[in-house]
Amino acid sequence: MTERHDGGASGGWDPAHHALRELVMAATVRIHRTGVGYAPEESGAFLGSGFFIAPNWVLTCAHVIHGGEGGEVAVVYQAGPYEEPRAVPGQVAATLPDHLDGPVRGGWPAPDLALVRLREPVDHDCVFVSERPAPHFAEGRVFYAGWTSYQGRPEILDGFLTVRGTIGGWSTGAQMRLGENDLPPGVSGGPVIDPVRGEVVGVLKSRADHGTGGTSIGIERLRMLQVPPDTAPARHPDPGRPHDPHTHPHDLYQAVFHAHDRYHRDRQQPADSRRPTWSDLQSELRARPGRTLSPDERGELLGRLADLPPPVSTRGLLDLLDSLPNFRLPPLSPAPRGWRDGLGVLYETARQDGALRLVLDYAMRVLIAERPPTPSVLAAEQALWDWIKQAATALDSGYRRDIARRREEHLGDRQRGRHGRASADRLTVGAPVERARAHPRDLARERSVLLEVVRRGWEPDRCDWSISVARPDGEATRLYEGQRVPLDGLGAYLAGPLAEAFRRCDEPGRPVTLQVALPHLLLGMAVDEWRPRPGAAPLGAERPVVVRCGDRDQLPAEDDDGYGASGGRHTDPDGHRSPSSDEEFERRDRWHRVHAQHAQAEVLDCDDGVRRPVPEATALRGLAPRTVPVLCRQGDQRYEDDATALGRLARAGYGVVLWRRSRRQPDSVCGEFHRGAKVTVDDGDGAGALPELVHGLRGQVRAGLTEAFWADGIALLYDDPHQPLPGSGDLLEAP
């Protein structure tokens, strides 16, 4: 904080307010023109401030980003006081007003808000945004933060401002008047915080032309973001958009705030991080939203609501609120449009003795709202019901019986309504997912390119390789082969041979799949990130890329594998073994079940953000037959046997495994990856669509689509036991 400007944290602040200041500053960013970094001499490209409102989403003022070019800006953030700043490209996703031709007489038109999506995924902190419709301030003051240019250098500053009233209180662009502090150039777009409740309530809009202070825009004005009129919700959304089964792909308001609420819910889970969370801070401030929920309860409820599809319409949400007993809906502008907004309406209107009952009545109405019952939706509803049951223990037994009866009636109605429903009606996810599940590739019946990599035991940093074309009849034609190639730089070395193999097999609009057979200790190799030529898209964004275990006969033997000598296992003097007939039967059986039925994802190495080792082979065999293992932290090498985790899964009979390469900070929030992986696997009709789904997700990450950033670094083991690798000695029959 620069000493030039008054209003920084004073020595009289208690630890909770110091924590508030740190959380706010960690999420406050500065906006630059594109093509610049963060060096002091580049401060001339500085446009203004902003803050992370959700993972990879920045909220700022429309007039700030208007100084950018072509809707592109650079977002510069700093994770902590001792961290180096980092510049990340950003794209303007929406503005309010939505047509910007420049400022009008008297300043930029309200609401003057803009959402910027980062073009690549990064780890960062996010502010906590109030869900109250019209925040009040018990002490008549707010806290703010922002960036400015001081002596040619960018500097962050913070301070307090008094609330002096509103401008245009009856309009959709109402602004809050602030005073009693100097607002230097550059702070526009920074967050405005209620220091009593510990939540962001607005965005700094302007500074006074004469005197001190300025104005801010209430955070609730974001409800004015519209879904484009030509993209009304449909059962089969636009194929070009990213998929999120819980929000319409064009509704940025729902997408951003669902991500916001899930982020703060997940941050509160047990994790490796020791940093305080916003819920921790709010507990220290002794803030209670409304008259009933603790900060932890509030964050958990918001997160569970965010796991559900949003209201079908604002009118439907208003009708739901109107149906609450002994509740009178106040006039609101703009009207609530998300589940979080409806919850916020209740805070200021409930009686002291009826607040919890009102919240639970609302949650029950959300729970039983009509929606397609996909597996992920059913899981989200069950989680919300668990929360309601736990919260209802504070009320009388009659109320508990009543909500249990309503839950049973809802389940009965749904079960009766599902008879005869087509499987397509169960899927309301985005079109890349729809397309893949409607027309999944069948690798057993398609031509593919097969790359085999064999590590040289006496030269572990080198390998032998071959490239073949695998035909649907199970035969393979070898095109190229080589020996003693360094593993480091293998992708560049093979760019030419792979390009020729692809040319032989690609069809218009349908690039051939690349199968890569790797030794079990190299299954994490980032083959999908190889680039066929400088500046080209990675292979995984260009075409489906899957890996296979190329040395099943070399998987290490274990004493606790649960198979006796009668199982037919053979171990050589070096400790390697050939697969037993029981193991091969289990492998084929698991493959059949995950393709013939709804598969079910299970995260094995991460529990609510806490890293744990992958189970041993015996425990892995005990998982349900429909399980698709998911690894969240693959590659961080926390445990001694991490390098063999994928090999253990292959040995335990799993031919389909999903993971992401770990390249995040130890305290990163991983809930979005868990959720995204489960939705991708669980909401389909089997594992056959996964190669195409993963390909689509990689393409969305490459395109900078924020909703898919959870899939950054995603990889897929897809090892069909009915398609033996050439020379493997596998005697399995073709299907």
Explain briefly what this protein structure is.
The chain is of the alpha+beta class. It is 28% helix and 22% strand. The longest helix is centred in the middle third of the chain and has 22 residues, at 397-418.
Which terms summarize this structure?
single chain; 735 residues; alpha+beta; six-stranded antiparallel β-barrel; six-stranded antiparallel beta barrel; 28% helix; disordered N terminus; disordered C terminus
Description:
It is a single chain. It contains 19 helices and 25 strands. With 735 residues, the chain is an alpha+beta fold. The termini are far apart.
| Tally of helical runs | 19
Number of DSSP strand runs: 25
Radius of gyration based on Cα positions = 28 Å
**Could you report the average pLDDT, rounded to the nearest whole number?**
81
> Largest beta sheet: what is the strand line-up?
1-2-3-6-5-4
Estimated helix fraction: 25-40%
User: Which class best fits the helix and strand makeup?
Assistant: alpha+beta
The biggest beta sheet, please?
6 strands, antiparallel, barrel
Query: Distance N terminus to C terminus?
Result: 68 Å
- Using the alpha-carbon principal axes, give the shape: globular
Regions with pLDDT < 50 over 5+ consecutive residues? 1-12, 230-246, 419-435, 559-570, 729-735
Estimated share of beta-strand residues: 15-25%
